[in-house]
Amino acid sequence: MSSETKQILTTDGIPLEVSLKKAEKKNKIKAFLLVAPLLLFLVITYIFPIGDMFMRSVDDRMVTNMLPKTFKAMENWENLDELPPEEVYRAFYEDYKLLAENQQHGKLGQRLNKEKNGFNTITKKLFRQIKRKKIDESASLKEQINKLHKRWRNVEFWQAIKRTAPPYTAAKYLKGMDMYFAADGSIAQVDEDRRIHRILWLRTLEIAFFVTLFCFLMGYPIAHLLATLPMKYSNLLMICVLLPFWTSLLVRTASWMILLQQQGIVNDFFVMIGLVADDNRPEMMYNKVGTYVAMTQILLPFMVLPLYSVMKTISPSLMRAGKSLGGTPFVAFWKVYFPLTIPGIGAGCLLVFILAIGYYITPALVGGASGTLISNQIAFHMKTTLDWSFASAMGLMLLTGVLVIYWIYNKLVGVDNIKLG
Amino acid sequence: MSKNPEFVKFDKVDKSYDGKVLVVKDLQLNIAEGEFITMLGPSGSGKTTCLMMLAGFETPTHGEILLDGNIISNIPPHKRGIGMVFQNYALFPHMTVYENLAFPLRVRKVQKDEIDKKVDRALSMVSLNGFETRMPAQLSGGQQQRVAVARALVFDPAVVLMDEPLGALDKNLRESMQYEIKHIHESIGVTVVYVTHDQSEALTMSNRIAVFNDGKVQQLSDPAELYEKPVNSFVAEFIGENNTFNGEIVDIDKEKCKVKLVNSEILANPISVKSRGEKTTVSLRPERALINPSDKMDNMFTGKIEEVIYHGDHTRVRLNLLGSSEFILKVPNSTSNLELKVSQDINIGWNSTDARALDPK
User: Fold this and answer.
1) Using CA atoms, how far apart are residues B110 and A247, in angstroms rounded to an integer?
2) What percent of chain A has pLDDT over 70?
3) What is the C-alpha to C-alpha distance for residues A251 and A268, in angstroms, rounded to an integer?
4) Alpha carbon separation from A211 to A260, A299, A406, B26 (Å, rounded)
5) For A193-231, b where at least 16 C-beta lie within 10 A, e where not — what string?
6) How far is CA B239 from its chain centroid?
């Protein structure tokens, strides 16, 4: 008899392991082909754009490419507190002349102006001199340029050019936190009256936190009712919860505008029942109140649905058991029912919070000045200032924030404890 | 110390959920202290509703429920001090076995060391010592069931209710749990109200059985009497196996009556029939009919074997007898057994006292 420790063969003589692998390989390929379209879709629409956003947010090659000779010459500029040597001036002049010929000089001026205010004026002045051929290339360019404007004699402007030399920069991220690279390269805070981003970040977190809290406080009883009512009533209630969900976001926000404005329905009602005087109607829109109210209503289903799906699985006999064992209804709820709903609370809160910190349309329409969020700032830079790299940087900061929250949540509650449905 | 024969008392209790149909009709039921009483019946017969009313999760539409002489209809469940074992155990899934058992004690503000002692005692009662730190999900069905029983007993309730507690277990486990629960009841003497639709469970465990149908108690008696002497054809049908003959009384005296079937007559024991001309259903237990009886029996007939099914300890024989092909015989499996073959003719006999003439079906 052949040894049993030898390879086991299938009936056609192929080793079992080989034929198993062969059989599984087909399945693996099939499985991969099934998910391949989605994978491709995700790569194209998610991973690639995020990568692109990141590149854009740190990309600072424009000046590097425009002034190649200048930066090469600046390597020999040793004492940074004094004006650079003649060769730097000459290199800069040559670079700039080339740009002027290609009509690229304007961009450089704008870019450098962002680095140091007042640059645009002096580069334009230089451009006009070059155009009129008033620069004598055989003489000292340092003297001629310095004579054009007193700012050329200010070493800070030359330092500003040098700061733009590295092809990558974290400046946009610092700007998102109201900080910047000072002339000496250290990180400094912007003036107190110009610190708008930090306020926006804090406000975004604050609004997201309170919207989550309100959604939880309102959604928990609704979800409980949904899970315990008899089928025919719970279906009706479910439709009431979902109906706004199926309505366009814009329509819902617009209807809140109708309700909340100073001559709106809610204010009319308050006046009618004598709660407020007609000439003293409270502002409920274009401020935080409007943002809270509208966002809570819009995000409520995201709280109710995970809670509902968890509560649905909790057997009513557990509450009964709690009561029959001597717990008051409150004790039975608090010790038995509530702990079992924690996976739903976690999922709902995480969902609402993450959606809320990236919310855009609603705060833009009803938020006014004091109710706008960081996403509105991102949109502003995307559409108005066209500073896409800054918008990308802030978008990535938001994404990082979400990941951090997710991580904290995982540490506190555990992601296994989430039940989305 | 004499035991209170009316420890739990249902006094003319009605219950309706929708105002149209009575699920429980005029229920009058006394349960003695320390008794093991089973409510047995098909689903929808109102037995679980009765249990829920006793536990306090449903309120009677009419009538009162008394516990040890006090009306409890208006006392909320958590103040009744009644232990309950639920159909699906209802163990708290987020608590360990210890925490589950400690729950009723903690809400009663029992001291910590006292809790430990009681939990330990309750666990040893169901032989689950050492399982304190397990979660319910880590236990088998039988173990979960025992934890549920221990939890219902740990706070020394006067009454323990059990709502089909063994329904989810497999047959062998169910049988061993039946004995276990029975022994626990005997050793601590608690009053148990047990609901089931499984008649063998009811017969094995109970002191008395209340057979429910259509919202009413059909018969309330001890297991032997229930099986041997059913008072109506529903009980006869529901408990154990049963051969029935539908007919009409043609002659009746105190001990015997003559029942006319389609084309023959049999003698029966008049239970719920009074006079000639009444319709009746005669019920006969399969094991009471004998093949080729040696003694003289007052009902002797010949039937043809239609089917023979081997059951191990006994053989089931289906006969065509007196115009019905559904007559069942249970023949004990012994060495002296006759060779039973299909389409063979055999003589069958039974005593008229075992054939009970009940209300017509």
Assistant:
1) 55
2) 96
3) 21
4) 17, 8, 18, 55
5) eeeebeebbebbbebbebbbebbbeebbebbbebbeeee
6) 8
Q: How far is Cα B110 from Cα B114, in angstroms, rounded to an integer?
A: 7
| Whether A321 and B84 lie within 8 Å, measured CB to CB | yes
Amino acid letter, residue A317: S
Averaged confidence pLDDT in chain A: 85
Pick the CATH number of A196-417 from 2.60.120.1680, 1.10.260.40, 1.10.3720.10, 3.40.50.1980: 1.10.3720.10
Q: Please say which residue of B191, B212, B233 terminates a domain.
A: B233
Average the pLDDT over B13-37 and give the result.
Answer: 86
Whether the CB of B136 is below 8 Å from some CB of chain A: the reply is no
pLDDT band at A34 (very low <50, low <70, confident <90, very high): very high
How far apart are alpha carbons B211 and B239 in whole angstroms? Answer: 9
Residue pair B336/B315 in contact (Cβ under 8 Å)? The answer is: no
Say if residue B209 is in the same domain as residue B325.
Answer: no
Q: Is B90 an 8 Å CB contact of chain A?
A: yes
Beta carbons within 10 angstroms of residue A390's beta carbon? 24
Helix (H, G, I), strand (E, B) or coil at B133: coil
To test the contact with chain A by mutation, choose from B58, B75, B103 the residue with the greatest count of A C-beta atoms within 10 A, namely: B103
| b/e B31-62 (16+ beta carbons within 10 angstroms → b) | bebbbbbbbbbeeebbbbbbbbbbbbbbebee
Structure-block tokens of residue B332: 């004990």
Provide the sign of the torsion angle of the four alpha carbons B55, B59, B62, B63, taken in this order. positive
Q: Which residues, in sequence order, are CB contacts of A306 under 8 Å at separation 6+? A: A344, A347, A348, A351, A419, A420, A421
Alpha-carbon distance of A123 to A113, in angstroms, equals 9
pLDDT in tens, B30-49: 888 888 999 988 888 888 88
Cβ(A369)–Cβ(A196) below 8 Å: no
What is the predicted ipTM? 0.78
Which residues make Cβ contacts (< 8 Å) with residue B359, sequence separation at least 6? B232, B233, B272, B273, B280, B281
Tokens encoding B107: 């809400």
Alpha helices in B94-247 (DSSP H): 97-106, 112-125, 141-153, 171-188, 199-205, 223-228, 233-238
DSSP 3-state of B262: coil
CA nearest to A334 within chain B: B107
Phi and psi at B167, nearest 5°, equal: -60, -30
Tokens 């900061």, residue located: A397
Domain match, B204 and B249 both: no
Q: Which residue of A has its CA nearest to B81?
A: A326
Find chain A residues with C-beta within 8 A of B108's C-beta: 326
Cα–Cα distance measured from residue A209 to residue A409, given in angstroms and rounded to the nearest whole number? 14
**CATH code for the domain of B297:** 2.40.50.140
DSSP-derived secondary structure for B198-236: -HHHHHHH-SEEEEEETTEEEEEE-HHHHHH--SSHHHH
CA A155, distance to chain mean position in Å, is 37
Indicate the domain borders of chain A.
1-56, 61-167, 196-417
Q: Which of B40, B18, B1, B3 is nearest to B217 (CA)?
A: B40
CA atoms within a 13 Å half-sphere pointing along the CA-CB vector of A197: 23
Residue of A nearest to B58 (CA): A320
The single-letter code of the amino acid at A123 is: T
Residue count of chain B? 361
Q: What are phi and psi of A249, to 5 degrees?
A: -55, -40
Query: Which of A321, A328, A335 faces B86 most closely, judged by CB atoms?
Result: A321
Residue B1 has pLDDT above 50, yes or no: no
CATH assignment of the domain containing B69: 3.40.50.300
- Residue B179 has a CB neighbour count (10 Å cut-off) of 11
SS3 for B3?
Answer: coil
Contact A340 B108 (CB under 8 A): no
End-to-end CA distance of chain B: 46
